Amino acid sequence: MNLQSPFSSTHSFNYEHEWKYDVFLSFRGKDTRYGFTSNLYEALSRKGINTFFDDDGIQSGDEITPTLVKSIEESRIAIIVLSPDYASSSFCLDELSHILHCIKRNNRLVVPVFYDVDPCDVRHQINRFGEAMAKHEQRFKNDLNKVQKWRDALHEVANLSGYHFKHGKGYEHRFIGNIVDNISKRITRRPALHVADHPTGLQSRVSKVASLLDVESNAGVHMVGIYGIGGIGKTTLAAAVYNFITDHFEGACFLENVRENSSRHGSVHLQNILLSEILEKEIKLGSVKKGTSEIQKRLCQKKVLLVLDDVDDPEQLKAIA
């Protein structure tokens, strides 16, 4: 996963996540505007999730408007509703390409919803998606690079973890509820950490650490250490990385001043904080051994982001991580 190249002078690198919208909804209006997508929008809104939903006819013509571009760039998460005729719209394909460039490559979350669509059809552009792309190749035969960009975007979004709904295989309202609950957990976990009053020079370092952590992978454990003399910005970098990738995790915790707090209160105090923050309920442990066991048992099935600030003893890692 290469996160080095997407940043340009036209995109701000926001370390503290002050978004205008929590969610940007991308969809083909003719397919789902008055059905699934409007119901999803209402469910997100009832949960207090600020969602951009184009209900004012901004989607007109063949190209996305500056208003939509700005809305995408100001959104924290994008949900792509891939319906049967999604690929027939050059507008939707342009929007998808921009979302993947602006949101996913800046390590924000993109969630595909395969609505009565087989993900393989999207990935390999077969059946309805294949027919749509063949028509685009005829229409844009003088600009096949554009069509290839759309093909690459469809293949990329189909490989992301998302949701699959097929009529007759479950209740739509429950399907929507699962999406909303998951999005809610990711955006209401806690306010972003303060990074610095005037952060400079962090962009490439944050991207490098994020790439090492491989946040889109669901396999195994990824651990990165940041070390160096005091005062060079290790904690600032860690906080910026935490803000940058936290939406990709089911639970997250930033444990500050591990060395000092471990010395003053013991490792069990840090274990209590860790479990309480991630499980969102008060945890009281009796011993470090009990805490280690509880961390393994309760978090083994969760995708968790844990940042330990100022570690100076391997025993602290053993007890907490």
UniProtKB/TrEMBL annotation:
Domain TIR stretches: 19-187
SUPFAM superfamilies: P-loop containing nucleoside triphosphate hydrolases, Toll/Interleukin receptor TIR domain
Transmembrane regions listed in the UniProt entry: none
SMART domains referenced in this protein's UniProt entry, alphabetically: TIR (SM00255)
Domain of life: Eukaryota
Short name of any one Pfam family annotated for the protein: NB-ARC
PROSITE patterns reported for this sequence: TIR
UniProt-recorded name of the protein: TIR domain-containing protein
Top-level taxonomy: Eukaryota, Viridiplantae, Streptophyta, Embryophyta, Tracheophyta
